[in-house]
Amino acid sequence: MMRVLVTSSRNTFALDIIRKLGSLGHTVVASDTFPGATGSHSKYLAGHAVTASPRYDTDRFIADVNRIVAEYDIDLIIPTFEEVFYLSARVADLPEGVTLFGGSFSTLARLHDKASFQRLVKRAGVPIPETIVATDHDSLVAATEKYPRYFARAAFSRGGVGLLTNTGPLAGKMSVDDCHPTEEQPWLVQPFVDGPMVCTYSTIVDGRVTSHCTYRAPEQWAHSTGITFLAVDSTDTLDYTQRIVDALDTGFTGQLSFDFVDNDGELYSIECNPRPTNGVILLEAEQLEQALTGRNDEAFVVEPGVERQISLAVLADAFAEPLKHLPTSLHDLLHVRDVGSGWHDSFAMMWSPATLVHGAKLSHGQRKELLGALGDDIVWNGEPIAGMSAADAAALEDVHEQRI
């Protein structure tokens, strides 16, 4: 049996991982930077702890993680958000005998930086839209003027937050003057690709995909983060994921999530989140368990048609835009299985408002969307990390030089 620490337990998919591993008899401990994190109150936990912010107090965060590892004799750390960058940059400072399921810092940085990621994907032979990297205001304006319909975002961004476009439901939500690209923090500009977003989640062990899910989000909160998840065919995305992993040439072990746009059956790669996303919710508990260890000879692939929803979010979205979403939301509430169904772990979800309050506190006095604020203390935006090795610092510089 494994003894697992799941970090950033505020995330719905972190709670899902906790439930699945805990229900199979593994010892699971949760941590986050505040005590009200949803996943920290699951009945499937052996314990939970509060850590310092990895972003704002990295040294103390690492010390806190070491304390938890020692107290609970942890042998596997599963990050669920961008704390993975801080843990991987400081992996040499983690206790001997504990495994980080997250990959090397240099590899994660190549995947997370959207500019260097585009170059990697192109080398892997995976379709991508034409891409311009803007490093100042003038080049950003010029790039947006090149395409009649465009889509732009920062090289370090996530969760559908901070998107610049003149097309679709997010058109005009952000202006060019709100964006501030630099050499260190560039923006990517692409022609707007028509079609629905297709997302994936994969576990990889020693360079081999061990589980894979491809899904769409029929219902979204504020046109950004998904609140219902429907598995679709994985034939192309599984092939593309393995190609990208092979192009890394590192024997990667960890979790990867990709976003594609389905343009009349042609999938275009958009970005990578080198961490879990809601796709993990669609895996069965035994599949996730075996995939993390690599014991399965062939990848577990979620069958098309499997569907889950975050019922509370669906209900909230329905009343936020009742004329648009209420009919679909009512159907989903009646017919789609909730992510918490069958777990008999409702006390954990009662703490969901605490997570929103945490995000509101982080955004207090700042012009920041709630979705962005929810992860503000655990994100990584390409800066050097306190205590990182000289080799990783050099690798970060190399990533900047690999931008297209």
Automatic annotation (TrEMBL):
Residues 118-306 form the ATP-grasp domain. The keyword ATP-binding applies. Keywords: ATP-binding, Nucleotide-binding. The keyword Nucleotide-binding applies. One of its GO terms (molecular function) is ATP binding. InterPro entries: ATP-grasp (IPR011761). This is Carbamoyl-phosphate synthase large subunit.
